[in-house]
Specification:
Elements (H helix, E strand, L loop, with lengths): L6 E5 L3 H13 L3 E5 L2 H10 L4 E5 L7 H10 L8 E5 L5 H4 L5 E5 L7 H8 L10 E2 L9
Parallel strand pairs: 1-2, 1-3, 3-4, 4-5
Antiparallel strand pairs: 5-6
Helix pairs in contact: 2-3
Length: 141
């Protein structure tokens, strides 16, 4: 019995970056779909639910935070883990409500993406240099 590869949606507006991430994930055995902006990502999510989303925050038309907010409001999408990529320095506090997610700062070392996705999929691996944003306990705030 063969297990189907995990489905990954890569949302990145820079063509070269999107292709590099896509090629690396395909080589790692994932089933990869791509979107070049937030609006396109939301359209794709209406018909195909991925196992993980790789999401740039700085996107045209609908930005990454708006995509995250929309995803977390939808019952069928709300638990999809997200690997957020950004060059923005101060976003951690704004992202705490959007768990489960991992934040990777740009420029990204491509070798860090597959281990981060494996962690989001719940697979046990070493994550040197990858940092999950802690979940806020609403009872302690």
């Amino acid at each position: 019995m063969q297990i189907a590869p995990a489905r990954i949606l890569v949302v990145e507006d820079h063509d070269d970056s999107r292709r590099m991430v896509e090629d690396m994930l395909v080589a790692a055995g994932f089933d990869v779909h791509t979107a070049s902006n937030g609006a396109e990502a939301l359209r794709l999510l209406r018909s195909d639910i991925p196992d993980v989303i790789v999401l740039d925050l700085m996107l045209p038309w609908v930005n990454g935070v708006e995509v995250l907010a929309t995803i977390r409001e939808q019952p069928l999408l709300s638990k999809i883990p997200v690997l957020v990529t950004t060059a923005t320095a101060t976003v951690e506090h704004d992202l705490r409500a959007f768990q489960p997610l991992i934040l990777l700062r740009k420029p990204i070392e491509l070798e860090a993406i597959v281990p981060a996705i494996e962690q989001l999929l719940g697979r046990r691996i070493s994550l040197d240099g990858i940092r999950a944003i802690p979940t806020i306990d609403p009872e302690k705030t």
